[in-house]
Amino acid sequence: MSVHSEIKRVTTNTLRDMKSKNEKIACLTAYDFSMATLVDAAGIEVILVGDSASNVMAGHETTLPITLDQMIYHAQGVVRAVKRALVVVDLPFGSYQGNSEEALRSAIKIMKESGGHAVKMEGGKEIEESIARVLSAGIPVMGHLGLTPQSIYKFGTYTVRAKEEQEAQMLKENALLLESLGCFGVVLEKIPAKLATEVSQSLQIPTIGIGAGAGCDGQILVIHDMLGINKDFSPRFLRRYADLAAIMNDAFTQYKNDVKASDFPNKSESY
Ligand code: KIV
User: Which residues surround ligand 1 with Cβ inside 6 Å?
Assistant: First the structure.
């Protein structure tokens, strides 16, 4: 029996069971093998290979430029690392909005080439057909409502969404639609906590919040943000669990000083 087979993997059913037992779901993003190894070992249930890789890994201003092949490259490293977590991979901008056939082709490419376990798609009614088509191929889909960063140029700002009644109503309807289509969960990004709680209580499938308050069934953060690698990004919803920027800067500075002082490598570090 292999070591892997002894570990009980997280599946979409696990997440639904957790919701029914009121057990909160912990999710983080990861984009490479080393980080995903650590995240998985810590017992995080869901690892999202987010298109936020476009920002934190590639340095783009938005999530729009990242390509399907680049997402697959990131997801491959994560999948190779993970023994337990459910790996969800973002369908990037431009890979599913055109029509449902394109959506299916993109989702199949991700599943085949990365080995990920599910995909995430931003939007509700406007991509209903595409979501249904991907689901019909047996590919689990996680929805994403509220602040959907792939639509940043439509919104014009990263501020809280659905504060007005009309948008809030639309979001509630979209959440129910995603559930009825067969999505296994839905990310709620940057919406009022009261609305997120209401949506969470109206669904059987789990909601995963980011900037959506404590009433969601789980939470997700971008790993670079929660580790304090990104010093310039400090929205109200972000809790920093480490100050890695400072720790890394100390290490780099110390290394530089040791090299310049001919202190590194010493005898015991040489052959
Ligand atoms: O791309 C991403 O990291 C995300 C999360 C913020 C939910 O979509």
Answer: 29, 48, 50-52, 90, 187, 189, 210, 220, 222
Residue 189 appears among annotated catalytic residues: yes
Q: Which helix (H) or strand (E) holds 245?
A: helix 244-260
Q: CB of 85 within 8 A of CB of 47?
A: yes
Can you give the pLDDT at residue 1? 47
Q: Which atom of ligand 1 is nearest to the CA of 189?
A: 7
Beta strands in 21-147 (DSSP E): 25-29, 46-49, 86-90, 118-122, 141-146
The pTM score is 0.97
Rounded to whole angstroms, how far apart are CA atoms 55 and 230?
10
User: Measured in angstroms, how far is the CA atom of residue 139 from the centroid of ligand 1?
Assistant: 19
Closest Cα to atom 4, ligand 1: which residue? Answer: 50
Ligand 1 centroid from CA 255, angstroms: 34
Contacts for 122 with CB less than 8 Å, ≥ 6 apart = 144, 148, 149, 150, 151
Q: Given 179, 189, 198, 269, which residue is catalytic?
A: 189
Tens digit of each residue's pLDDT (9 = 90 or more) over 254-266:
999 999 999 999 9
Token pair 């809030």 is found at: 168
pLDDT tens digits for range 25-48 = 999 999 999 999 999 999 999 999
Give the percent of the chain with pLDDT over 90: 96
